[in-house]
Amino acid sequence: KFEENEGPNKSDTKYQSEQRRSRFHLWKARVSIDRGYSAFLSLIELRRLIHAHAADPRLTSELMADVKTNVDLMHSSLGVIIKVDPNGKKTIEIDQWRLTSALSLPKGRVLCARVIEEGILPHPSACHVFPVAFSCIFSWPMPAAEGEDRLLHALTVLVQTPRPSIDPLILYRCLDMLVIGAKGGKYDLSSI
């Protein structure tokens, strides 16, 4: 007779538990990405409506409430957390786990690239997403058939945009993460 902590049943249970946990995290990332896509499409439509009705300030202000709601959903799907201190100063933090799990799926990478390319993700948020996304890109195998990674291209455009520009400290953090990752064997920089 096997003890409770020994034998094949324990390893099966451990394996099953790990599989359930993996499926749960995958499901959670998919739901988050779907919410992000829904917010993205709503923001595209809201942008069109605001431009079409720019002469009507009442309608524009009503639409801006929807814009804020959808930007908050977009932020949440990409792990962007906006904190406001008692003085009203906003700070941006990134939930690295949430962003990394979203970017681990192709649909999440495309979503992140599209919201940056379209200017849907506010520039300060995109700048704070940059280091984590940059780190993720170099931890993945490079795409063979598609050529350049779309997310990498979107981030490159973000860096090249003169106004608004990206804070040099964010670029420094990206390079620092890349060098530390290369020294630790996490990244293979020979393809750069």
List keywords for this structure.
disordered N terminus; about 70% helix; globular; about 190 residues; two-stranded antiparallel ribbon; 7 helices; mainly alpha
Structure description:
By secondary structure, this protein is mainly alpha-helical. Helices cover 68% and strands 5% of the residues. The protein contains 7 helices and 2 strands, in the order H-H-E-E-H-H-H-H-H. It has helices at residues 7-52, 57-77, 96-103, 106-117, 123-139, 150-160, 168-183; strands spanning 80-84, 90-94. Strand 1 (80-84) and strand 2 (90-94) form a beta hairpin. Helix 5 packs parallel to helix 7. The termini are far apart. The model is unreliable at 1-5 (pLDDT under 50).
Judged by helices, strands and strand pairing, the structural class is mainly alpha
Rg result: 20 Å
SSE order in H/E notation?
HHEEHHHHH
Could you give a short account of the major beta sheet?
2 strands, antiparallel
Q: Please tally the β strands and state the result.
A: 2
The share of residues in helices is 55-70%
Oligomeric state of this protein: single chain
Number of helices: 7
The portion of residues forming beta strands comes to 5-15%
Given as residue ranges, the uncertain stretches (5+ residues, pLDDT < 50) are 1-5
Quote the distance from N terminus to C terminus. Answer: 57 Å
Write down the overall geometry: globular
Strand line-up of the largest beta sheet: 1-2
- Global mean pLDDT: 85
